[in-house]
Amino acid sequence: MAAADRPTTVARRGGMGARLLWRALLVRRSRVLAAVTAIAVGAAVIAALASLYFDISAKMSRELRAYGANFIVAPASAEGDKTFSEATYRKLIAELPADRLVGASPFLYGVARIGEREAVIAGLDFAGAQKISPYWQVEGNWIGVDFDERRCMLGERLAESLGLHPGDKIEVSNDDGSFTTELTVRGIVETGEAEDDQILVNRSLAQKLLGMPNVVNLAMLSIQAEGEDADRLASTVEADFPGLDIRPIRQVSQSDGELLDKIKVLMAFVAGIILVITAVCVNSTLTAMIVERRREIGLQKALGADDSAIMRQFLIETVTLSLIGVAVGLVIGFGLAQLLGQAVFSTAISFRAIVVPATLAISLIAALAAAIVPIRRAIRIVPAQVLKGE
Question: Does pTM top 0.70 for this prediction?
Answer without folding.
Answer: no
